[in-house]
Amino acid sequence: MAETRENIEAQAREGAPQAVAEASPEAVSEAVPFEISVLPLQNTTLFPETVVPLAVGRPRSVAAVESALATPEKLLACISARSEQVTGQDATPADLYSVGTLVMVKRMQRIEEGLHLIIQGTERVRVLEWTQEQPFLRARVQTLPPLKVVDGEVVEATKRNLQSLIQQALAMLPQVPPEVRAAVMTADDPVRLAYFLASVLNLGVEQEQKMLEAQTVDELVLLAHNYLAHELEIMQIRSRIATEAQSEMDKAQRDYILRQQMKAIQKELGDDEGGERAEAELLRERLSTADLPDEVRTEAERELKRMERLPAAAPDYHVIRTWLEFVLELPWRKSTEDKLDLKEARRILDEDHYGLEDIKERILEHLAVIKLRPDAKSPILCFVGPPGVGKTSLGRSIARALGRQFERFSLGGVRDEAELRGHRRTYIGALPGRIVQSIRRAGVNNPVMMLDEIDKLGADYRGDPSAALLEILDPQQNNTFRDHYLDLPFDLSKVFFIATANQLGPIPPPLRDRMEIIQLAGYSDQEKLHIARQYLIPRQIQENGLQPHQFEITDAAVMLIATRYTREAGVRQMERTIGSVIRKAALRIAQGEAEQVSVDASDMKEYLGAPRFYPEEARKELPAGVATGMAWTEMGGQVLFIEATLLPGGGGFTITGQLGEVMQESARAARSYLWSHAAEFGIDPEMFKGYGVHLHVPAGAIPKDGPSAGVTITSALASLYTGRRVRPDTAMTGEITLSGLVFPVGGIKEKVLAAHRAGIRRIILPARNEADVEDIPEDVRRELEIVLVARIGEVLDAALEKLVANPPPPIPEATRAERPAAQTEPEVIRVREA
Amino acid sequence: MANSVERYFRLLHGERRMRPGTRAWCPAADIYRTTDGWIVKVDLAGVRPDELEITVKGATLQLSGCRRDTFYGEGVSYHQLEITYSRFERTLRFPCPIEGASVARDYRDGLLILHLRSEENCEERMDDQD
Question: Which of A37, A708, A715, A719 is catalytic?
Answer without folding.
Answer: A708
